[in-house]
Amino acid sequence: MKTLEQRAIEFFINEDVLTFGDFTLKSGRKSPYFFNTGKLCSGKQLATLGRLFAEKLQVEQKFTDATVIFGSAYKGIPIAVSTSVALADSVRSDIRSVSDRKEAKTHGDASAFLGVIKSGDKAVIVDDVITTGGTKYEAIQKLREAGCEPLGFIIAFDRAEPAEGSTLTAKEVFEKETGLQIYALANVNDVVKVKPEFKEMLDTYLEQF
Q: Which tens digits make up the pLDDT trace of 63-92?
């Protein structure tokens, strides 16, 4: 039986979320691969993504008491929604999907959130990847200001590369600074378990750090 990590990597490759070539990342770093969940937009794709995140949420004891799945605008929103839908027929069917607004609304519902946040809620925060962690720091602050306790994060993919100016990965730096753990569906080292032919390429890339 395939592991969650292997199924996630197969899904990401089959749907062109994880692609290989010659890319320049937002940081300016050159990379032989690129990861983009923004390509997932069909019902079938989002249903599969939601099931993968829902499975991870259910197996991690840290999230047993979570009442909210929080997805930051923009890429976190479809992840949060599809995950809550995937849990609809489970014992976690009451878990709420919530996201934030990029800009404050000046009429009607002036809440900083889309969805319902209650004082005393506990949230698992979902996202695609971690780079600088900027939006994730913002998410923690917004949730705490609303009386909601962040329990940790689930991301789709961990590049496992050193953060700028550090020997630690971006994930490790973030965890050290916030005290919150990040759980990934898969990381770059899981790729070779599905695609052994990429081992040499990825090893060469990671050896530069």
A: 999 999 999 988 999 999 999 999 999 999
Q: How many CB atoms lie within 10 A of CB 84?
A: 25
Closest CA to 120 of 149, 157, 86, 99: 149
Terminal Cα-to-Cα distance of the chain (whole angstroms): 34
Round to whole Å and give the CA distance between 182 and 96: 20
Please compute the mean of the pLDDT values over residues 52-59 and round it to a whole number. 98
139 token code pair: 């998410």
| Gap between the Cα atoms of 129 and 26, Å rounded | 13
> Nearest to residue 138, comparing CAs of 155, 125, 151?
125
201: tokens are: 């390429």
Active site residues: 105, 107
User: Would the pTM of this model clear 0.70, i.e. be above it?
Assistant: yes
